[in-house]
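All the exercises in this workshop are built on plain-text protein records. An example says more than a description, so a record of this kind follows:
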Amino acid sequence: MKSFTTKYRALIITTIIFAAIYSLISLVNHYNFRTYALDLGAYTNALYDYTHFQWNDSTAFLQEPENLLADHFDIYLIIFSPLSLIFKTYTLLVVQITFLLIGGWGVFKYFDAQETSKRFALPAAIYFYTFFGVYGAVSFDYHSNVIAAMLVPWLLYHIRGRRLITSAILLFVIILAKENVSLWVGFISLGLLWEYRKDKLLRNFLAFSALGCFIFFVMVTSIVMPAIATSNEYAHFDYSILGSGFKEAIIYLLSHPIDSIQTMFVNHTGDPFGDYVKLELHVILIFSGLPLLFWKPQYLLMLIPIYFQKLFHDNYSMWGVSDQYSIEFAPILAIGAFSVIRDFKKPKISTIVMYTTLVLGLASAIRIMDNPTAYIDKTRIRIYKEAHYTKDYNVKEVHQALDNIPKDAIISSQSQFVPHLALRDHIYHFPVIKNAEFVVFSAKEGTYPMDPKEFDLFTDELKVSAEWEVEYDDHALVILKRKV
């Protein structure tokens, strides 16, 4: 019998390579202050609260306190919070990279488990690791839907193996990531229900799973989250073209099918910055192998909620290929496309299509790094450029200055510094100051949510205010301390 290392040597080498690539993207971004209050800062602050057995009040990004679970019903942060005692502010980035690698292993295992598909296992894993949505996700902070997506290949693997207890546990764990994930998993269950329709045991299990996911989605978004929100409403129904809530959205989609289909391809907001963003997504997905799913439409069914939550959104930045908004395509396309390739009768054709899919998938990833239509901060993702590793100020000295701030101090911080200072009880997103004892900002970083002129005027006033004294100022970073 082969040893584990011998059997999986190629996969282990592949995993190490992509672990290095993802780390060079994500961890370097964090060190160079390219992570932000939204979302890494807010989530890291939540880790601190959860490790101290208290709810997070969202004041890292909201003016008024509100339970973070009202913003997104994310239980993963509670589960991962003890790791912050080890990995500090890098915790969620390390977790995200780890699960991205685990997701690739899930894709590999799905194909390696059957003799007829073994030769597709490693190419499918490589395709998954090079998928454009993976790079978008790893380049922008941390998001729990990424973790959920990485568990999907394992869910499909165990369901195909008819390991129902393990599948049920995995399904339950996946839907704890975020409230909208349960809707997606419901559609995954429907797709699998069609695939295994002739297997009574799996058919019943998947029907129950789909129903359970839909009930969970409705309960969390309609009852639980509104109950803990200060507004008593679900905060993220940002689909004005569909109406004012989920009920109106369903009615609109059923009564306006032509308009709904058209919306998936056109800029429905009228904002010129949204022009061609949807088109780019469709083209990139086509080059990434989406047409192969027409041979197995059950996988297209699994993607319906992902398309709708992206393309009907009021914010055009959701529509495109950037950030974490395309990560759910990765496991479905990897397993769906390579399942189609596996089933081609002629080995020569399957080999040609396999390598074509790999090459075009890689080309799509490179496209979003170099010349995307959708806005992407290229310095966050292009690890082959010097700009990714440098800033126009001394990063090491800024880190040292931030480390000198007392660990229990209340801070108001500019977005780029919040993730590095978030492991404390109270931190506010500048310009919110409230009862902060220290204010941290830099004219060399982005000034969101203020425009540059407003930012300069406000920070100049603070520096000469009788209420504050300059604790540190080297032009790259300013730290003000409240006078006693």
Q: What stands out?
A: The chain has a mean pLDDT of 95. The first helix runs from residue 4 to 7. The longest strand covers residues 468-473. The beta strands are 411-413, 427-429, 438-441, 468-473, 478-482.
